[in-house]
Write a structure and sequence with these properties.
The chain has 1 helix and 10 strands. It is α+β, with helices and mostly antiparallel strands. A hairpin with a 7-residue loop joins β9 and β10. The chain is globular. About 22% of the residues have low confidence. Bound molecules: copper (II) ion (CU).
Amino acid sequence: MRLARPLVLLAVLALALAACAGEATPGWTFAPTPTPTVAPSVEPTAAPDGGEATPAPTDGGNGGPAGAVLEISAQNIAFDTDTLTAPADTPFQIVFANNDAGIPHNVEIKQGGQSVWVGDIFNGVETRTYDVPALAAGTYEFICTVHPNMAGTLTVGG
Ligand SMILES: [Cu+2]
């Protein structure tokens, strides 16, 4: 049994060393509490308060970009004006007031004696709004179909 002693001593020594080592330096350490990865809090993009964008007026709407509205009236079988001006290549409107009670009038547009556009004929007293299609630039005549002596000049694009 000569060999047993040294082994035991070694074993004891080893245990002591292990214990010492264990006390001196902790075999393990708490890992630093991992900082929870805080996702950058993306705040919901607040809708701009009342920021209702005002779209610029675009073409294609009623009346076109200019939204031109001509006004004309008829009374005592005569138009109140003999000149009208409208934008070229753009639909426009004519607000026509027939102030002759019981008498039919309208507005018709001609060029070189040829009818270009005819508005509905209706009895006064009534006001109607005509939608006139786009016309090429130029000089036109406007008349009342019923009373051709009611006439004037429509300048388009001038
Ligand atoms: Cu008339």
